[in-house]
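G., before I forget:
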Amino acid sequence: MSPRAGLTTERLVRAGAELADEVGFEQVTVSALARQFDVKVASLYSHLKSSQDLKTRIALLSLEEMADRLSTALAGRAGKDALAAYGHVYRDYAREHPGRYTAARLTLDPETAAASAGPRHSQMARAILRGYDLTEPDETHAVRLLGSVFHGYISLETAGGFSHSSPASDETWVWIVDHVDALLRTPPTP
Amino acid sequence: MSPRAGLTTERLVRAGAELADEVGFEQVTVSALARQFDVKVASLYSHLKSSQDLKTRIALLSLEEMADRLSTALAGRAGKDALAAYGHVYRDYAREHPGRYTAARLTLDPETAAASAGPRHSQMARAILRGYDLTEPDETHAVRLLGSVFHGYISLETAGGFSHSSPASDETWVWIVDHVDALLRTPPTP
DNA sequence: GCACATACCTAAACCTATTAGGCTAGTGCG
DNA sequence: CGCACTAGCCTAATAGGTTTAGGTATGTGC
């Protein structure tokens, strides 16, 4: 029984992220985390400001991880290839880490959001769109479209919305990427 | 002090929905509801099975309300006009009733989902798409696309994702409806 | 005007969150 | 080496939320 369990904010947040993936982000609780480390709940409050703080940190971690994957996946790709890779990163991440993915959709206060990896996400979306011939404000509209379709699709798919009907979800995904690619090549609004 | 407060499941669910819109769906709690009716918490358990039950019922109510609005809005419309109306109903409902809209996105167990107004939503999406020349499986893909874009957009917008940059969110909305309409007119995949 | 079902209550057990203050094990300095 | 100090974890306590069991009283219907 070592009286020092070696808690750090870092380790707590990582454990919280894993817990989120296992039992769902909603079930991530300071108490559950304390149980995992075999430590009393109050002990976590030296490392975390609050339950909300824990959740926010998990969100930030997830955003970082996704941004890192995005930047790897996008290296050397352009056009439709890049578009597909971009969407694939999100979908894959959500499958592998459903709890983290949910966490990443937390609404952060403006300062926190600005300091997060969120802006990197949009930057990368913009980078992809540079492969299409869009001029402002179309490019911004398109960034928002990508966010909407991909996040919307993944959240419906995760909720099981497409699981009990044919065609398979994978086919719809490909269909959507194809058509969004085509959409981005249509001439700007008249 | 009438010893009978006149509680019914119906009234509790409606009050819960209003509470959700005021303070957020996450904050809807059996206790808060009891407070509103000036009644002890345990009293609600004759009318509600559990906290989860309350939330599910709010979700079902919201799905019904949206489906009703959809069917009104779609009457007499077709093509792009119908498409725009369809999206508008969701966006408007989410603005007016943010708590209910969030509730509606709860994942329901399969039987509950099947008995909900959810299927009416998809039926109406299909009805709109009949105005475009799609053949299966494209129509199903398109139903899923509509769900993804609209729900995705609304959830990003609600989270404040578009509020601090130009162009205004409204413009993007119009742009997206335009382009999705165009997308649905492009010839099927080869 | 009585019997009964119903609607609401009290009481209690159990969870989570959060704060205040205590004990002790390592750290660093003389 | 040993002392003082600062972390790091603990106990204790408060405040809410959920849920169940069992009581009391109210209004309905015979």
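The radius of gyration of chain B is 19 Å. Residues 3-7, 39-40, 42-43, 46-47 of chain B lie near DNA strand C (CB under 10 Å from a C1').

More on Monday.
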